[in-house]
Amino acid sequence: MIKRTKKVMAALMVAIMMITTSYTVFAAENDGWTEAPYTEAAQGGAWEAWCEKWETIKNDWTQLSITPGKNATELNFAWYSEKEETLPKVKISKSTDMSNSIEFDGTQSRAVTNKETKIEYVSNKVTVTGLEEDTTYYYSYGTNENWSSPVVINTQSTDSFSFFLVGDPQIGSSLKNTPTGETEAIGQDRSVRNDSFNWNNTIKKALSLVPNASFMISAGDQISIRDKKANNEQALAYTENEIEYAGYLSPEPLKSLPVATTLGNHDAVSGNYSYHFNNPNTSTLGSTVGGGNYYYTYGNTLFIMLNTNNTNAEEHKQFIEQAVAESGDVTWKVVTLHQDIYGSGEHSNEPEIAELRYKLVPIFEENDIDVVLTGHDHTYARSKILKGGVKEESTFLTDDEYEEFFDIEFESDYTELVEDEKYLSYLESIEDKNAIETDLSIRGENISNPEGILYITANSASGSKYYNNVPRQQAYIANRWQEDVPTFSTINVDNVSLSISTYRTDNMEKIDETVTIIKSVEYGNLVDKIEEAEAKSAEKEIYTSSTWTVFEATLSNAQKMNGASLLLQEDIRKQIGECLGSDYFVLPSSIHEVLILPDNGIFQVPELNAMVQEVNETQVERQEQLSDKVQFCDKKTAVMENAERREARLEKEKVAEKAEVKGGIHGRLEKAKAEIKAKEGDKVPKNKSKDLAAAL
To answer: Per-residue pLDDT for 105 more than 60?
Structure first.
């Protein structure tokens, strides 16, 4: 990638510093990063507690990953174990005591050997099938019948669901900015510790906003170290990034939240990615050492994950067509790839990125892709709706030509802009102004029935490294943002709409407006009609009383078309709460409208669920049904969750609270005595220390 000149300079600086001092070595570029100890999340002893915990995490190569299955009825599990441990299994139950559990057998394959401990690891992979939606499960996993403690995992609805998008955790990338100490290994340890803390915080913040997310998508570069090996055998045995995978997999919520990872340029050149993740519907098409393309469906949506580190467009075309054909009739098609083919950061204008764009975009458009999610540039960008970008051969630059011009701007921190005609012609040609779809039905933040594609570039989710936006914002960009703060996006999907909101993690404010794509034949045609009708409402005097009543009713109904999608917007939910002055229930009447009921103590969730089910069965066409489940919305947070599941959660919390209080003063005294006794047991008498040390 470009920035080679800068990297050479940085390497020379490091070499000089290593010669002149035997103490601390700094290797820094002008890239921004988030220094974890100084974040708000690290205060009150949180950073110190994490540093202590990190010592138990960093050498644990056996942590679990969960990936979406080929559809919503399946989940995929993967973890390392020692070579001698066989028979990998996952068992799953609807009970906390794991009664009536079902066991699923897995497979093992080679992984890596720890050079220091000489422990040989194998990769275990298990697929769990037959899962029901909106259900609480408990699972354990293990080898040789040695089971882990049960972990809870909730499946979600497929009619209407939410997921997260994150970009470039790239755990360990802050090494370029972190004091490395006496060795690079120490520096890696410190940088991974830093980035993993921020990564944990991002996931925690995302789940606080949407606790019922179905899964998360990572747009690539889970880790940082990517030494390219001379041959595949060396790449498959690579271990220098295992501490980074340990940090990436460390967040506790990932034990209950499936993650669909994308192969980034830092993941693709070693075998570790393929050992740690158990992706569904995997293919050799688009493959590198790390793996190839894969896809899965969730409800009405097809998710296609491309390894575009392999630039063979014909292979990607074949795979996409295969995935589309095998997924059947879906409403939405979402592609995720690492490289930001319509981004606005420092990578975005590179010829190799633009080349990849013009190879892939025609394939996306031929297969009616709706949204493309990317990363790579460590900065946020949202495109306009685009269709039909064309490469202008006459203006294209070689990589070397482009780098010469770019380095001038980069090295000056964009204070010296190149005005060379050849360079500017190239930049203008790749803006794809003719691809911008202008004939759109837009009503507020809703985009109705676009023919083109929306492209989203995710910023860093860990703050391990940020890039600047290029100084000249491209014509194809609707909005972009960079303030060196980790971000994440929430994406809500139902039968007619797909809505994207993006947040910064420090104050949880949006960095861009919520954008909603509405896919409905009726809606697209209605927009103009509604506006026309609204204009006529001022002409009430030309109507008779009877015809005005009919007109008013018709307009009201038209305005309600696909109105349920408005509840996907956080701002709308907040406004409703403010108007009601209370929490409230959302009854999914149909895709066109919902019923809002204040939570005033009158309504019971089972009765409301029964009401919705009866209406769906008797009054609403199947294709217009939204869901059978009543939702509850918190007035203060505007978080919407399944009302039934919320009541169950609150009941569990109430039982736990009662159990704690039950003993009264006596119980608290007994608890205090037990704690004192435990502390005393930790103290080793002097006359016993020798024997104990020998035993240990």
So the answer is: yes
Residue 419 has phi, psi (to 5 degrees) of -110, 15
What is the C-alpha to C-alpha distance for residues 514 and 516, in angstroms, rounded to an integer?
7
Say how many C-beta atoms besides its own lie within 10 A of residue 459's C-beta. Answer: 30
Query: What is the Cα–Cα distance from 55 to 663, expressed in whole angstroms?
Result: 37
Nearest CA among 684, 683, 658, 662 for reference residue 671: 662
- If phi over 0 gives left and psi between -120 and 50 gives alpha, with beta otherwise, what is residue 35? beta
Q: What is the dihedral angle through the alpha carbons of 182, 183, 189, 192, rounded to the nearest 10 degrees?
A: 110
Among candidates 198, 159, 114, 298, which has minimal Cα distance to 622? 159
Q: What is the pLDDT of residues 154-189, one digit of tens each?
A: 999 999 999 999 999 999 999 877 665 668 888 899
In a domain, 547, yes or no: yes
- How far, in Å, CA of 674 to CA of 625, rounded? 56
d(CA 2, CA 350) in angstroms, rounded, equals: 7
Tell me if 618 is assigned to some domain. Answer: no
Exposure string of 109-136, with b = 16+ CB inside 10 Å and e = fewer, is: eebbeeeeeeeebbbbbbbbeebebbee
CA distance 193 to 53: 10
List, in sequence order, the alpha helices (H) in 537-580: 545-559, 570-580
pLDDT at 565: 59
Q: Is the pLDDT of residue 594 over 80?
A: no
Count of domains forming the chain: 3
Give the model's pLDDT for residue 568.
65
The domain that holds 98 is classified in CATH as 2.60.40.380
Question: What is the pTM (predicted TM-score) of this model?
Answer: 0.77
- In the listed set 105, 126, 154, which residue is the last one of a domain according to the structure? 154
User: Residues near 677 by Cβ (< 8 Å), separated by ≥ 6?
Assistant: none
pLDDT band at 27 (very low <50, low <70, confident <90, very high): very low
**Burial classification of residue 21, based on how many CB atoms lie within 10 Å of its CB (0-12 exposed, 13-18 middle, 19 or more buried):** exposed
Q: Could you give the 3-state DSSP secondary structure of residue 434?
A: helix
Asked if residue 162 belongs to a domain, the reply is: no
User: What Cα–Cα distance (Å) separates residue 222 from each residue in 189, 352, 381, 552, 597?
Assistant: 16, 22, 20, 55, 43
- Rounded Cα distance, 87 and 106, in Å: 7
Last-in-domain residue among 130, 154, 178: 154
Instruction: Judge whether 167 lies within some domain.
Output: no
Q: Point out the least confidently predicted range of 452-456, 498-502, 636-640.
A: 636-640
- State which residues form the domain around 690: 663-695
**Dihedral angle of Cα 287, 288, 289, 290, to the nearest 10 degrees:** -70
The helix-helix angle for 643-661 and 605-619 (nearest 10°) equals: 170
Taking the C-alpha atoms of residue 591 and residue 495, their distance in angstroms, rounded to an integer, is 7
Distance CA 98, CA 442 (A): 51
**pLDDT category of residue 405 using cuts at 50, 70 and 90:** very high
> What one-character-per-residue DSSP string does 291-303 give?
B--EEEEETTEEE
Beta-bridged to residue 223, according to DSSP, are 171
